[in-house]
Specification:
This protein has 380 residues and is mainly beta. It is 12% helix and 46% strand. The chain has helices at 22-47, 201-210, 300-308; strands spanning 57-58, 60-66, 71-76, 82-87, 98-103, 112-114, 125-132, 140-149, 152-161, 164-172, 179-186, 189-194, 215-221, 224-232, 235-240, 246-251, 256-262, 269-276, 280-286, 292-297, 316-323, 329-337, 345-351, 354-359, 364-370, 376-377. It is globular.
Length: 380
C-alpha cells in the first residue's frame, strides 16, 4: 500500500492539548500587568482628588491673621479664653519652631504671644494636646510632639500656668518614628500617630505613591509604650470622644476617619468602623458640644505642589461632623477656599461659635465667627 503523503500545514488540525507557547503566556502577563498599573494609576489620581477644588464659602465672617509660619496645630483652652498654636516653618526645618498663645477675649484679630520654651532645647513642634491636672489650681498639662532631629522624636510635657510654660520633662521611644498627631489621656499618658512607617526618607515617598498601610498608633503611659493600632495609610490627627471610650484617627491617604473602641484601663484599641470624607484628613478636634471638626486637603496633588512651591495654591475645606441620637452621621461645611485665602488647612478648632483654622505652611491663621444657620450641608 502506498503511504499517504503528509498533510500540508493548512490541512493539519491543531492539537488543542498542546501547551500555550511561552511567548504568548508572557505577553498575556505583561498585558495584565500594564492594565493593572493603568487601573491603579487612575485609582490613585481619583483618590488623591486630582483636578478637584472647592467653592469659596464661609459660614459667617472670617479674618486672616498674620502668624508664625506653619501654624499646623491649634487647640482652644476649655474656658475659651485663648488658644495654643504650634508653629514650625516646614520650608526651613533648620529654623526653631515655637508655641504661641492667641487671645480670644476680644474681637479678631486677637493678640499673639510667644510662650517660653527652654532655649537649649532643639524645638520643632507638631501636634499638641491638653490635659487637666485635676488639682483645682487652674493648671493644665500641655503635651507637644517635638521632632528634635531627623532620627529623634520626643513628647515634651509642660505645665501651663497663668499663660506661662514650665517644662516638666521629655518622653522618648524608638516607636516614635514619624509622630504627627497626639491626644492626652493623662498628665504623662497619650496616644500618638506615626504618619509613616520606620525607614529612610525615600521609603516615605514610596508609601505615599503606593498608599502603603505602614502607619501606626502608639499608646504611652507610665507603665509602657506600645503600638495599639497598625496598618493605616498616613495616620494623621487623633481624638477621643468626650466619654473616652472611642478613639478616632484621620487617614490622609484613605480620606476617612477610622473609629476604634477603646479600653481605658489598658489603652488598647479595636477597629470598629470608618467614615469617608471629601478630602485627605489632617487634624481632627472635638469641641465642647461634642461635634468633631476636621481640616481636609481636597486635592492631594495640589497640596504636594504647594509644599514644594509657596506660590502654588492648595484648596482647603473645614467640615463639622455630628451624630444624632440614633447614630446617624451628618457632615456640614463651615469653610472652603480654593487656596488664595488659605492654602493647605491643617486644623480647625472650635469653641462656642469661634473657629480657628491653621495651615501647614502659610504664615497665617483664619479667625472665624461661625453662624450655625449658615453651615452648608455636604453634598457628595
Amino acid at each position: 500500500m502506498t503511504p499517504k503523503p503528509p498533510a500540508s500545514p493548512r490541512q493539519r488540525k491543531p492539537n488543542r492539548n498542546l501547551p500555550v507557547r511561552r511567548g504568548s503566556r508572557m505577553k498575556l502577563w505583561w498585558s495584565f500587568l500594564a492594565a493593572s498599573l493603568v487601573a491603579y494609576g487612575v485609582y490613585t489620581v481619583w483618590l488623591g482628588g486630582a483636578y478637584r477644588s472647592v467653592e469659596p464659602f464661609m459660614a459667617g465672617q472670617c479674618t486672616s491673621v498674620d502668624a508664625p509660619a506653619g501654624p499646623e496645630d491649634i487647640l482652644i483652652l476649655p474656658d475659651g479664653s485663648g488658644a495654643i498654636i504650634s508653629a514650625q516653618d516646614r520650608r526651613d526645618r533648620e529654623k526653631r519652631g515655637g508655641l504661641w498663645f492667641y487671645d480670644l477675649g476680644g474681637n479678631a484679630p486677637g493678640k499673639l504671644t510667644e510662650l517660653n520654651v527652654p532655649e537649649q532645647m532643639p524645638f520643632h513642634p507638631r501636634g499638641i494636646a491638653l490635659h487637666g491636672s485635676g488639682s483645682g489650681s487652674g493648671e493644665w498639662v500641655l503635651q507637644v510632639i517635638n521632632q528634635r532631629s531627623a532620627d529623634r522624636n520626643t513628647v515634651e510635657v509642660f505645665a501651663l500656668e497663668a499663660g506661662k510654660l514650665r517644662h516638666l520633662g521629655s518622653i522618648g521611644s524608638d516607636l516614635f518614628v514619624s509622630p504627627n498627631g497626639i491626644v492626652a489621656t493623662g498628665p504623662q499618658s497619650f496616644y500618638l500617630t506615626n504618619d509613616r512607617g520606620a525607614g529612610p526618607r525615600w521609603m516615605h515617598a514610596v508609601e505615599n505613591i503606593l498608599q502603603l498601610s505602614r502607619s501606626t498608633v502608639i499608646y504611652h503611659d507610665p507603665r509602657a509604650t506600645r503600638p495599639v493600632a497598625e496598618d493605616i495609610a498616613f495616620a494623621n490627627g487623633i481624638a477621643l470622644t468626650p466619654d473616652g471610650l472611642t478613639a478616632l484617627v484621620g487617614s490622609t491617604l484613605w480620606r476617612m476617619v477610622l473609629t476604634f473602641d477603646r479600653e481605658p484601663a489598658s489603652g488598647l484599641l479595636r477597629r470598629s468602623g470608618s467614615l469617608a470624607l471629601p478630602g485627605g484628613v489632617d487634624n481632627i478636634r472635638f469641641d465642647s458640644d461634642g461635634a468633631l471638626w476636621a481640616a481636609l486637603h481636597v486635592n492631594s496633588f495640589a497640596f504636594i505642589g504647594h509644599a514644594r512651591d509657596a506660590e502654588k495654591e492648595s484648596p482647603s475645606l473645614v467640615v463639622r461632623i455630628d451624630r444624632d441620637g440614633r447614630g446617624a452621621t451628618r457632615i456640614v461645611e463651615a469653610f472652603g477656599d480654593p487656596g488664595g485665602l488659605l492654602s493647605g488647612a491643617s486644623v480647625a478648632a472650635h469653641h462656642k461659635g469661634r473657629l480657628l483654622i491653621g495651615a501647614t505652611f502659610q504664615p497665617r491663621i483664619m479667625d472665624c465667627r461661625i453662624e450655625t444657620a449658615k453651615l452648608k450641608e455636604f453634598q457628595p
